UniProtKB/TrEMBL annotation:
This is N-acetyl-gamma-glutamyl-phosphate reductase. The keyword Oxidoreductase applies. The active site is at residue 150. It comes from Brevibacillus laterosporus LMG 15441. One of its GO terms (biological process) is L-arginine biosynthetic process. Pathway: Amino-acid biosynthesis; L-arginine biosynthesis; N(2)-acetyl-L-ornithine from L-glutamate: step 3/4.
């Protein structure tokens, strides 16, 4: 049984980690950590957990944390992991970081997009980008995993197979993304105030979202192509779920051998051994509700002959495949467990 520690246990990602890990047969939750609730019970904040056998919340002491656990999940706000990860690495514990601190390889890019001090280059060099469907072998050998962001997970899984072909104009990619409110975290703010958000729908961080460089970096790492995308996120008045709709222009200037049948086969082949990616039959389009509470990413493909554009839709639960579920998928790979072990396979429906 592997000992699990969770730093940031009172946030949404921390609570989702606990919900799923309580069903995992090969681990037990050794320690929970919080910077603001030391010595208190998690059930005080989340009464639905009062029947769970969980340890009391502890303060964050990195040296002690490294000694107590086999793996530590950092479900912390941006800027925290960068500070404490070096101590955890020195202590020899495996690390899975759910914040954005270790995702970008460039400290300068992190500071530009996140407006916070970055982790050191030494730490960033050790962090493996944890998109299992495309980086599984490296995750298995890692000691530090940078868990992908929710938008990048849905976007990269939907784009990467196509970007390995020569069918498209790489500079034509537009990603229109929509997320539920839980992606903003548990902290109260005017932007997620009920009366501001309800009966409304809006774009935010237009041209400025911090997941943009992560998506572009992921494309470069997995396809060796340096591509700039147009990414616009929107906030939808629902709790969970992400839907991305990507538009990519076919290259009509040359005979690239594109067919609709070939597009469908490309994706089915790319993900034939990926247990959490489901490529929908042609003409079937996914809804966020169909992956609610699961670690699945559902992908659908369409070709618009009139405009010459490929349209790709993908849906995930931002709290599971976009955060805690993918982190546990990475943990399974780190410890040599079955990749799907302990992860929910059926959506909450309706």
């Amino acid at each position: 049984m592997k000992r699990i520690g969770i730093i940031g246990a009172t946030g949404y990602s921390g609570i989702e980690l606990i919900r799923i890990l309580l069903q995992h047969p090969e681990i037990y939750i050794q320690s929970l950590y919080s910077s603001s609730a030391e010595g208190r019970s998690l059930a005080e904040f989340f009464p639905h957990l009062q029947s769970a056998d969980l340890p009391m919340l502890q303060g964050i002491q990195p040296e002690k944390i490294a000694q107590e656990n086999d793996v530590v999940f950092l479900a912390t706000p941006a800027g925290v992991s960068a500070e404490i990860t070096p101590v955890l690495i020195k202590g020899g514990v495996k690390i899975i970081d759910l914040s954005g601190d270790l995702r970008l390889r460039s400290p300068e890019a992190y500071q530009e997009w996140y407006k916070k001090l970055p982790a050191t280059k030494e730490v960033l060099q050790q962090a493996v980008y944890g998109l299992p469907e495309w980086n599984k072998s490296k995750v298995r050998e890692a000691s530090v995993v940078a868990n992908p962001g929710c938008y990048p997970t849905a976007t990269l899984l939907s784009l990467l197979p196509l970007l390995q072909t020569e069918w498209i104009k790489p500079d034509s990619i537009i990603v229109d993304a929509k997320s539920g409110v839980s992606g903003a975290g548990r902290g109260a703010s005017l932007g997620v105030h009920y009366s501001e958000l309800n009966d409304s729908f809006h774009a935010y961080k237009v041209g400025q979202h911090q997941h943009t460089p992560e998506i572009e970096q992921g494309i470069l790492q997995m396809t060796k192509k340096e591509i700039a995308i147009q990414f616009t996120p929107h906030l939808v008045p629902m709790t969970r779920g992400i839907l991305t709709t990507s538009y990519i222009q076919i290259d009509k200037s040359q005979d690239v051998g594109f067919t609709v049948e070939g597009l469908q086969k490309l994706y089915e082949h790319a993900y034939q051994n990926a247990p959490f990616v489901r490529v929908r039959p042609f003409g079937s389009y996914p809804r966020t509700k169909e992956v609610l509470g699961t670690n699945y990413c559902d992908i659908a493909l369409h070709f618009d002959e009139r405009t010459g554009r490929i349209i790709i839709l993908s849906v995930i639960d931002n709290m599971v495949k976009g955060a805690a579920g993918q982190a546990i998928q990475n943990m399974n790979l780190l410890f040599g467990f079955e990749e799907t072990l302990g992860l929910p396979k059926h959506a909450l429906y309706p």
